[in-house]
Design brief:
The chain is 46% helix and 11% strand. It has 21 helices and 13 strands.
């Protein structure tokens, strides 16, 4: 799950990488042994090829056995930022237990941290050379800063040498967040993150609307007009929830909107790097959409936290839906039968004529990197390969996590939550937009001025001009 804290942590990380950090508190440690393992769901076939369940399990074991077993017991230590997330704890306890059953001399010791402490943890570990075998790096600035140290392993040759592993990851290898500045694959994910709108059928019906009306909207302006129609009719649930404190998700959507108009990610990064003006048409259309967004939300949305506040609004059905939802939403709503049975995803409508439809932000979710000098490199890669197998994907799916690896053909039988299935199917047909900003100074200019565009304190063009000025000023100092 992505969180608003990511941006704040990235800024702290960049400012503090050259200084020693304080120690971090471990939130959750799961050193899983065979005794802790629970049974995985049976998988009848690997997608898209159809094979028997037994053959699929054998294939998984064979794929991860190409490297010999260690002669003595080893522990593969893993750090991620999923503390307090029961779905990840349950899935990975089962997965790591099964891996230990297959490879008795290998124990996976996973430690999950809170986002609030993760940046300091990585900074300190890089400086003290105490990184574990596998560790996540936030997509964007954090990854780039660690990359500059030269310590990261590139997985390109490993993937090329194993067509099965590469095929299992498939479309995931096209996502953002896994590649270095020179286009090397330096992080491997085990799940996928994407963003959609979310609506409640029952709430819409109470306002004399429907899922069909929302799904049929042909422009982003029409979505704003629909919310205003609900408001004018006196409906308290007229709005889409979103927590815009800090404006991070506004900046993210701005990138997505820009891409949908430009149809070329290169244009966005040329602007970020000072090689193209932010005042060009794709960015202007995106900025106008940001302004339009204010018609869809409550006036206090810029004071709301992107998690605790907005999740409460969504779970209590105080709104008709959410503007910033993804695979985690099913897990948030799962305990409330009314919520989960009435929830549906929808793509935000196109922001301009001829803009891409079915367009959303997506990236590799929980990514894992490895040091180039890791003494257990082959064993660690073998474990990463296992995480991409259909057998492991089945375990993730039953815990409502969208796996990065290959789906079994019977994946729909493993989960009885329609909105989860809908999200996966939407991902498979979506146009994936970039959302990651790699330059802290430019991002700060974007955050500040996009917020002012949203509130109407700056016109879209005025805001873009200020972003342009700040971007050019930053890059002038880098020459």
């Amino acid at each position: 799950m992505k969180k608003f804290l990511v941006f704040l942590l990235i800024i702290v990380f960049v400012l503090g990488l050259s200084f020693a950090g304080s120690s971090c508190k471990t939130e959750t440690t799961a050193a899983t042994t065979a005794a802790e393992a629970t049974a995985a769901p049976a998988t009848t076939a690997a997608a898209p090829a159809t094979t028997a369940a037994a053959a699929e399990t054998t294939a998984a074991a064979t794929q991860t056995s190409e490297v010999g077993e260690p002669s003595s017991p080893i522990v593969i230590k893993v750090w991620d930022w999923q503390a307090g997330t029961a779905a990840y704890d349950n899935a990975l306890n089962e997965i790591n237990g099964k891996y230990h059953e297959l490879h008795p001399n290998v124990t996976i010791e996973r430690t999950a941290y809170n986002l609030s402490e993760y940046s300091e943890l990585i900074k300190t570990a890089v400086q003290s050379k105490t990184l574990p075998d596998l560790f996540g790096l936030y997509q964007g600035t954090m990854e780039r800063e660690v990359e500059k140290t030269g310590i990261l392993h590139s997985f390109d040759n490993d993937l090329s040498a194993d067509p099965t592993w590469k095929a299992n990851l498939g479309k995931t290898l096209e996502l953002g967040g896994i590649r270095s500045a020179d286009d090397k694959i330096v992080q491997i994910p085990y799940d996928i993150f994407y963003l959609a709108g979310l609506g409640y059928k029952n709430v819409l019906e109470n306002m004399k609307s429907s899922e069909a009306e929302v799904q049929g909207l042909t422009s982003y302006k029409a979505l704003g007009d629909l919310c205003q129609k609900f408001k004018a009719a006196g409906n308290s649930t007229w709005y889409l929830e979103a927590g815009l404190a800090g404006a991070y998700i506004l900046r993210e959507r701005f990138y997505v909107f820009s891409y949908s108009v430009a149809k070329d990610a290169k244009i966005i990064y040329e602007a970020e790097n000072g090689k193209r003006s932010w005042t060009e048409e794709p960015f202007l259309k995106a900025a106008e959409a940001i302004k339009e967004t204010s018609k869809m939300m409550r006036e206090d949305t810029q004071a709301l936290d992107a998690q605790t506040d907005t999740y409460a609004l969504l779970k209590n059905q105080e709104c008709w839906g959410g503007w910033y939802e993804g695979p985690w939403s099913a897990g948030i709503l799962l305990d409330n039968k009314t919520d989960i049975e009435n929830a549906f995803y929808f793509y935000l409508p196109p922001v301009a004529d001829n803009a891409l439809t079915k367009c959303w932000a997506a990236d590799a979710g929980q990514v894992l990197a490895m040091r180039e000098d890791n003494p257990n490199k082959d064993q660690v890669i073998k474990y990463l390969k296992y995480l991409s197998t259909p057998e492991v994907s089945a375990i993730f799916i039953k815990n409502l996590i969208h796996p990065a690896g290959k789906f079994p053909d019977n994946w729909k039988d493993l989960v009885k939550v329609p909105i989860f299935v809908q999200g996966v199917e939407m991902y498979q047909e979506s146009n994936i937009a970039p959302w990651i900003c790699f330059t802290p100074d430019v991002e700060q200019a974007l955050l500040t001025n996009i917020s002012l565009i949203y509130t109407g304190e700056l016109t879209p063009m005025e805001g873009l001009q200020k972003i342009d000025e700040a971007t050019k000023a930053y890059w002038a100092t880098q020459k």
